[in-house]
């Protein structure tokens, strides 16, 4: 674990059930706030050899979380990351300033996942996960609930509005922290 550091930009997690629109939001946000860096965590893990196996039941890769966090840490210390991953609870609290949990109507989500060619059991598992608000509960348990916001992501209008809202939040953060923010101690 590194010593304390000052970051001049916030780190933001964009979480949500697969298909909710994390990457769509993160890409648009990075376009509108070019000082932030979008990390698609699944792709980052694959590119940086952080995959330790395959979960055949869930039809997905198993990520070596320790290795992933070690690689991300220097970037997180500097700040300005948009962390785009379905799972948000692995990132240390001291890194994170805002957690956006995207939510999606079940039928819309079902259609999106089906279009991707996911097998029926994987579509069902993800839609159930959305119905049970699993990601939202994880986020609220893992971080101060005051930094967790829930945003709907059913259509392009909500996507634009959400990104605008996050950009406004970033401007406020910069205004409130003109000298940056030092690492919060682990709690
Ligand atoms: N708010 C939205 N309005 C319209 N289409 C959307 C919206 N959000 C996502 N989509 C569409 O849904 C599909 C899935 O979106 P996206 O890849 O951004 O989701 P994701 O949460 O990043 O998924 P994964 O976790 O599997 O990477 C894409 O085809 C995208 O265009």
TrEMBL record:
Gene Ontology molecular function terms on file: AMP kinase activity; ATP binding; ATP hydrolysis activity
Location within or outside the cell: Cytoplasm; Nucleus
GO biological processes: ribosomal small subunit biogenesis; rRNA processing
Cited Gene3D superfamilies: P-loop containing nucleotide triphosphate hydrolases
Enzyme nomenclature, EC number: 2.7.4.3
InterPro entries per record: Adenyl_kinase_AK6, P-loop_NTPase
Kinase in keyword set: yes
Keywords per UniProt: ATP-binding, Cytoplasm, Kinase, Nucleotide-binding, Nucleus, Ribosome biogenesis, rRNA processing, Transferase
Binding-site positions, ATP: 19, 21-24, 116
Family under the similarity heading: Belongs to the adenylate kinase family. AK6 subfamily.
Complex and partners: Interacts with small ribosomal subunit protein uS11. Not a structural component of 43S pre-ribosomes, but transiently interacts with them by binding to uS11.
HAMAP family on file: Adenylate_kinase_AK6
Function statement: Broad-specificity nucleoside monophosphate (NMP) kinase that catalyzes the reversible transfer of the terminal phosphate group between nucleoside triphosphates and monophosphates. Has also ATPase activity. Involved in the late cytoplasmic maturation steps of the 40S ribosomal particles, specifically 18S rRNA maturation. While NMP activity is not required for ribosome maturation, ATPase activity is. Associates transiently with small ribosomal subunit protein uS11. ATP hydrolysis breaks the interaction with uS11.
Protein name: Adenylate kinase isoenzyme 6 homolog
